[in-house]
Amino acid sequence: MGIFNRRRHDLAALALLAAVVFGGLVINAQYQRKTLVAHRGASAYAPEHTLAAYKLALEQGADFVEQDLQITKDGILVCLHDLTLERTTNVEEIFPERHRVENGTRTWPVSDFTTAEIAQLDAGLWFDAKFTGTRVPTWQEAIDLVRGKAGLFPETKGPEVYGSRGFDMEALVLAQLEKNGLAGVRRDPNTPVIIQSFSPESLQKMAATGTQVPLVLLISDQDRDRDGWLSDDGLKRAKAFAVGIGPAKTLLLSDSTLSRRAHAAGLTVTPYTFRAGRGESGQTVKDEMSRFLYDIGVDAVFTDNPDQFPRR
């Protein structure tokens, strides 16, 4: 069996396991093996959330490729980490007068621009001159690139912000998955999907639709005690709408029981973010990921360096 066929087999098995449902809600999405999620693509080597970063992540063996999702003025999902465009594009140069002033700072919100306008922006030059001309991709473009080669791991970003601007992010995300045959019982087994969010309300809203797409609750180390999600009771409450948690890696270092307790509650554990030069105690990113995967016992990791993932 060739490498690509083995990957298709592994991903199909993951999708089959993720499809175990009760009352329409996924109740088990344990990974089939220690799993590599490319954080914003291979973002250590190419500009984050661009097709170049996603393509390189696939070449480096990613099991899943992450897409942070934002919404344009005309209601299209695009792949971008920030709610605003200025950090990773040249929007200030192309549309200098289209800014808002918030807390004394000029910003260019994604939702103030149409998809066609965002397509005019350069999303690569800030990272390296060799990526000049790279564009912000729509989520559909990301789906088309990744489909059949790896899984998709989208995140609903700022869903409450977009809700206040008249958008229903959860409905848009689920509708696009349905349109692509990635959300129903007969969804593409070679392209598994897991949706993540820092917003429990966003995940609860999607769970209430009866979606069979697995949902993961992200937990920041800055709000570790918010609603008590890391307590035994909190983990049980998370299990009511999610199949896993995605904690900041520092939370697992400060609480050696967290991974075990989450597993006991029936939740997968996928910590973030592993980056070269950012390891604990001077570890290489490969050694740090190995420690979390095989000593601490997490199921998967988000990493900017897919080529350093320690498979055994």
Characterize this entry briefly.
This protein is α/β, with parallel strands linked by helices and 312 residues long.
CATH class: Alpha Beta
The level of helicity is: 25-40%
**Major sheet, described briefly?**
5 strands, mixed
* CATH fold description: TIM Barrel
- The appropriate CATH architecture is Alpha-Beta Barrel
Mean pLDDT: 90
Q: Give the beta-strand count.
A: 13
Number of domains: 1
Percentage of β-strand residues: 15-25%
Q: Which class best fits the helix and strand makeup?
A: alpha/beta
Question: Could you describe the 3D structure shown?
Answer:
The protein is an alpha/beta fold and 312 residues long. The protein has one domain (3-83, 136-308): Phosphatidylinositol (PI) phosphodiesterase (TIM Barrel). It has twelve helices and 13 strands. Strands 3, 4, 5, 8 and 13 form a five-stranded mixed sheet that branches. Strand 10, helix 9 (232-239) and strand 11 (244-247) form a beta-alpha-beta unit. It is globular, with a radius of gyration of 19 Å.
Keywords, separated by commas or semicolons:
12 helices, TIM Barrel, 312 residues
Show the helix and strand layout:
Blueprint: H1 3-18, E1 20-22, E2 25-28, E3 35-38, H2 51-59, E4 64-71, E5 77-79, H3 91-94, E6 100-102, E7 105-107, H4 115-118, H5 139-146, E8 151-156, H6 159-164, H7 169-179, E9 195-197, H8 200-207, E10 215-219, H9 232-239, E11 244-247, H10 249-254, H11 258-264, E12 268-269, H12 285-296, E13 300-303
Parallel strand pairs: 3-4, 3-13, 4-8, 9-10, 10-11, 11-12
Antiparallel strand pairs: 1-2, 4-5, 6-7
